């Protein structure tokens, strides 16, 4: 038993070190001027808008089937529960103790995508996953288990990302205006954003001209304007309450949600699942080219986003060091509260809750990998999206620097998740 604990601890420590080193490579890239703040923003936007949806589509689509659907229902319920609980704790603590506004989203939103996905990948490399599969598990079984664990984490991340998009800006004061006015302005901006310039109308190319044929570009703009115009007409006939509901729901819609929805449809429709994920000789006419290309796109997300984390931290800390007196003071109480919630309270609660459900009920089935990933879901450092939220809300420089300092400290302490991994592995192994 002692040797198993040592093996689990060393494997977890190596996995955490792997994640920390990948972040450090991003810091080095920023320090060497290979990447700057603008590049990090563009890469982050690429990841959220294109790479993560591709990863969700292929991973969820390949793992989700009618026979496995019941495994994902507890994940969605658990993700909703811990996100709502974190949000409530953050709001109450911030108001009760007059803490800075950024404390609420720091407690509410943890890194649910790049960091845990890379952690699972590292655990597969160290062999720690075999403790949940049995001693006879070969490389193929480990690879399949890592893919399955990633699909569990990705389903959970849908809720986390939706909450971040939906509530994050409001918690930092970005949505002080009526949501209906904000949404209507978005529609009107969309209907006018693709108006042709004089150069476009005359067919004169410039540095902003599309590489697509003029006819294709004009058709795209015409379709886009027509879509937004139709949406405005529908919007204008909706009653006030329906407009409010639509505007608030729209905040939760994002490219990752779309990618997950497409993946779920492909996975749950047998005919689509077959043509996308079966071998070519078994009817998988899209697997070798379309599915493979989308999968390659999605695989770029994990490592790239972790490197972007390092770049953002390096750029942010460089800004604080040049900020003169505007240094972004970190209240000790705020730091201890957030770190305590992320690295102590939630690990204890999640391990206790999931262990109780496994021991007392059959709600979580018989997959130890599902239990393990559910224990990890609420844990770990705060989401890097805090920096983007601070930019979107036009927060003061003092607050931006405080957020950057806190995130730097939080990710530097990310190996603190090692005991959580070790205890989660031990708990799952006990109930196998």
Automatic annotation (TrEMBL):
Protein's membrane topology: Multi-pass membrane protein
Alphabetized UniProt keyword annotations: Membrane, Transmembrane, Transmembrane helix
Compartments where found: Membrane
Chain positions covered by the region annotation Disordered: 179-204
Pfam families: Mem_trans
Record field: compositional bias (Acidic residues): 192-204
InterPro entries, sorted: Mem_transp_PIN-like
GO terms for biological process, alphabetical: transmembrane transport
Recorded GO CC terms: endoplasmic reticulum; membrane
Transmembrane regions: 6-30, 72-93, 257-277, 297-315, 335-357, 369-390, 402-425
Source species, domain of life: Eukaryota
Protein known as: Auxin efflux carrier
Species this chain originates from: Schizothecium vesticola
